UniProtKB/TrEMBL annotation:
Organism lineage string: Bacteria, Pseudomonadati, Pseudomonadota, Gammaproteobacteria, Oceanospirillales
InterPro entries reported in the protein's UniProt record: Rieske_2Fe-2S (IPR017941), Rieske_2Fe-2S_sf (IPR036922)
Name of the molecule in the record: (2Fe-2S)-binding protein
Top-level division of the source organism's lineage: Bacteria
CDD domains membership: Rieske
Start and end residues of each Rieske domain: 2-105
Entries under SUPFAM superfamilies matching the protein: ISP domain (SSF50022)
Length: 107
C-alpha cells in the first residue's frame, strides 16, 4: 500500500490533515517526537476539529484542540481531557512509519 504522508510533512506545523484511501478525513500530529493519527471528527458533534487547514494543536503544541468548542485531547490516546466531550475519545487510525519516514496505514 502506498504511503499516506511522509514524516517530514510534519516538520513545519506538527499537524497534517489528510483524506485516507477509503475516503475518511483524518489527521496526523507530532508531539514530543511521537506521531499519532486520528479520524478528523470530534466526539461531541461529529464535526471536523480543524477550522483552518492543518491546525489541530492548541497554541502550546501539546494537546489536540477542537476549533469549534475548544475541547482538548491527549495526542497519545485521543482522550478528551477538557470540554463538552470530556472522557470520550477520538477514533484512532493505526499507522506505521518505515525506515525512510514514509507513513502508511497499518495492516
Amino acid at each position: 500500500m502506498s504511503a499516506i504522508a511522509h514524516r517530514s510533512q510534519l516538520d513545519a506545523t506538527a499537524a497534517l490533515g489528510l483524506r485516507l484511501p477509503d475516503g475518511r478525513e483524518a489527521f496526523l500530529v507530532r508531539v514530543h517526537g511521537r506521531i499519532s493519527a486520528f479520524e478528523n471528527r470530534c466526539p461531541h458533534q461529529g464535526i471536523g476539529l480543524d477550522f483552518q487547514p492543518d491546525v489541530f494543536l492548541e497554541p502550546g503544541g501539546e494537546l489536540i484542540q477542537c476549533s469549534m468548542h475548544g475541547a482538548l485531547f491527549l495526542p497519545e490516546s485521543g482522550e478528551c481531557v477538557f470540554g463538552p466531550c470530556q472522557g470520550r475519545h477520538l477514533v484512532p487510525v493505526a499507522i506505521r512509519i518505515d525506515d525512510d519516514g514514509q507513513i502508511h496505514l497499518a495492516e
